[in-house]
Design a protein that fits this description.
The strands form 3 sheets. The chain has a 3-stranded antiparallel β-sheet. A 3-stranded antiparallel β-sheet has the order 3-2-7, with helices on one face. Strands 4-5 form a two-stranded antiparallel sheet. It contains 2 helices and 8 strands; from the N terminus they run E-E-E-E-H-E-E-H-E-E. It starts with 6 loop residues before the first strand and ends in an 8-residue tail after the last strand. The radius of gyration is 19 Å and the shape is elongated. The chain is mainly beta. 7% of the residues lie in helices and 31% in strands. The chain has a domain of 106 residues: Jelly Rolls (Sandwich), CATH 2.60.120.
């Protein structure tokens, strides 16, 4: 049984894959009226992806916290194998997503929204509302009773 001592755990990494093209058959893509996101420059390093984790219980109470409250989503690892300017013909992509374990104690969600009851958890949502764009890889999602969190 879930309680405030339980945790939501998963493995997650940011990917450098391109976002899928929106369906444009007869309709304007969502967010098309917004200005494009700024692209990082040499002077401005890329920022870690951030999004919200939203939990809802059986009574409809919702608790939402940013993933950055628990830990930063690591940027994809960039690897160079040679001194060549473009080694993609030899080795493919120069980045590798590295999955990291995340443990989100349900007590943190109760503290953020006291009406939220973890014992009647019904919905887990990842709400991509904090970064302008990004792609994630998500694996091994689990609810762990009484904070017996796993290690990878």
């Amino acid at each position: 049984m879930l309680s405030r001592r339980s945790s939501l755990v998963f493995a997650l990494a940011e990917s450098d894959e391109e976002l899928p093209k929106p369906e444009t058959a007869g309709k304007q893509p969502k967010g098309a009226d917004q200005p494009p996101a700024a692209t990082p420059t040499k002077d401005q390093p890329p920022q870690p992806l951030d999004f919200s984790v939203e939990l809802a219980d059986g009574a409809g109470a919702v608790a939402r916290l940013p993933i950055s409250r628990f830990r930063a989503v690591p940027l994809p690892l960039v690897a160079r194998f040679t001194k060549l300017r473009d080694e993609s013909g030899f080795y493919g992509k120069a980045t590798e997503p590295v999955l990291q374990d995340f443990e989100l104690p349900l007590a943190s969600f109760v503290a953020a929204a006291p009406r939220f009851d973890p014992s009647s958890l019904r919905v887990i949502r990842l709400v991509f509302d904090r970064s302008p764009k990004g792609v994630v890889i998500l694996e091994d999602v689990a609810l762990v009773p009484d904070s017996q969190a796993r290690t990878r």
